[in-house]
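Re: [ENG-882] Designed sequences occasionally contain unexpected residues at chain ends

Forwarding the minimal case from QA. Structure tokens:
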């Protein structure tokens, strides 16, 4: 993967007179409005927006058809090949290529430019963005180019196994947090679309992302001491004010991908999944009316994952039609819906899981405290009071099995706006237990994406080595943390 260089030059035609020349040629011919290098912090906002568009994209990203649909939070009443586990290879190629070329490469460039200017705070932010981009890719595909990915002299980078990638990513989060704890230099507020240049929040994000990455691989090695150190340090997200989220704008083309596709793009086949609606109804959960719109009859009705192969869609006999199945609620197709990289609510659920499993101190009692904090934070995000819901009998737990089931279920519900993350946690925890899509091309929820076709053709030797590590380039090939 070649590192992109961000150089902007202005060429002038210079006429030299035979009778003389100027001694301050360089100063006179430097245009202050066209710098030879783009300032590092100006790269940040573009990279953040591109990353969130890729992560949350409905049709062309990892958020919709191959994210929230596979997590069975959403469903479709037409055009549902992906729901039946027949993904578009072009989208898979684009997610890989765009993440490397625009997210990871720009983050790497930010670090180089910031380091040259002695701005260690901005350098750390670039490192966080780069680490997150690599984690995103390894969680989608498995083994990926990592150690050789940013070397411009290597056109066919080798793939690293997942353990190597995760170890590197976790180390990058650690380095970034250390740099931010004693860093120097400012970040232009208008260039930072997550935190407006607030380095204290970036420090919390680095530690929170590290906690999430450690939990992701917690089934592969002992992560207890590292998790406990993060909890003891206390410098992680403390409220929704610490959410890493991008504020989208009110109009196309700078609105949230949900709005761009469903509302502005009139792709009204996206609906709520009955796995979600039935669970929310059973829990007497008021988020149902935020997540789902009423159908033509004034009711909220979901559809299960699948159909569309032997059974055509839309389908009047089954009631799976545009008018009968509830669409996505207005809040979640608002153009200014935040694009979330990580939310405080998810950190709370991960801490609850860690406490319930004994990875961090506190046991079941502390796990329930974190669990309730996660629910309350998500209710606040949805602009709903949580007091009555939290008081319901049966919402809490008193043993590990019940705790893990309920923590997983509530995290899944809370990730309604984060399709990639919802599917990823379903793959890791299998909670809640979901049935594969009806009439699916395979008989299980996918574990990963196929590798891009470009890698097969242009980097085949290294691609084949990666396939050997996986045991096959299939949607069902398991990743190490599953």
């Amino acid at each position: 993967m070649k590192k992109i260089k961000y150089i902007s030059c202005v060429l002038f035609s210079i006429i030299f007179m035979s009778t003389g020349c100027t001694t301050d040629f360089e100063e006179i011919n430097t245009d202050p409005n066209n710098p030879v290098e783009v300032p590092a912090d100006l790269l940040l906002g573009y990279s953040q927006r591109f990353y969130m568009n890729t992560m949350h994209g409905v049709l062309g990203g990892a958020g919709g058809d191959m994210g929230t649909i596979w997590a069975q939070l959403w469903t479709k009443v037409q055009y549902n090949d992906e729901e039946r586990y027949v993904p578009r290879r072009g989208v898979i190629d684009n997610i890989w290529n765009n993440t490397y070329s625009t997210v990871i490469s720009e983050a790497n460039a930010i670090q180089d430019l910031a380091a040259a200017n002695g701005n260690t705070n901005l350098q750390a932010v670039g490192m966080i963005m780069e680490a997150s981009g690599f984690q995103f890719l390894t969680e989608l595909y498995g083994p990926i180019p990592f150690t050789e990915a940013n070397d411009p002299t290597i056109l066919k980078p080798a793939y690293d196994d997942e353990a190597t990638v995760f170890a590197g990513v976790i180390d990058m989060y650690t380095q970034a947090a250390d740099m931010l704890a004693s860093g120097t230099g400012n970040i232009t507020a208008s260039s930072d679309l997550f935190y407006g240049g607030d380095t204290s929040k970036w420090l919390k994000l680095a530690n929170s992302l590290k906690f999430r990455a450690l939990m992701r691989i917690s089934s592969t090695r002992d992560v207890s001491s590292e998790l406990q150190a993060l909890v003891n340090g206390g410098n992680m997200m403390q409220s929704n004010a610490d959410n890493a989220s991008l504020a989208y704008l009110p109009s196309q083309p700078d609105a949230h991908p949900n709005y761009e596709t469903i509302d502005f793009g009139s792709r009204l086949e996206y609906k709520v999944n009955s796995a979600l609606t039935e669970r929310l109804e059973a829990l007497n959960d008021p988020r149902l009316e935020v997540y789902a719109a009423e159908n033509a009859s004034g009711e909220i009705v979901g559809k299960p994952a699948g159909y569309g192969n032997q059974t055509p869609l839309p389908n009047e006999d089954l009631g799976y039609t545009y008018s009968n199945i509830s669409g996505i609620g207005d809040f979640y197709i608002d153009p200014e819906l935040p694009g979330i990289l990580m939310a405080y609510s998810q950190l709370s659920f991960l801490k609850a899981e860690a406490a319930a499993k004994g990875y961090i101190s506190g046991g079941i009692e502390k796990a329930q405290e974190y669990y309730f904090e996660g629910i309350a934070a998500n209710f606040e995000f949805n602009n709903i009071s949580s007091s009555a819901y939290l008081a319901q009998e049966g919402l809490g737990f008193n043993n590990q099995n019940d705790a893990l089931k309920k923590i997983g279920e509530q995290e899944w519900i809370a990730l309604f706006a984060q399709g990639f993350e919802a599917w990823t946690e379903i793959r890791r925890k299998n909670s809640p237990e979901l049935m594969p899509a009806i009439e699916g091309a395979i008989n299980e929820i996918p574990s990963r994406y196929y590798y891009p076709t470009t890698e097969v053709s242009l980097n085949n030797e290294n691609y084949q080595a990666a396939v050997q590590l996986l045991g096959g380039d299939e949607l069902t090939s398991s990743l190490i943390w599953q």
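QA comment: On inspection the terminal residues look reasonable. Residues 257-333 form one domain. Proposing we downgrade this to a documentation issue.
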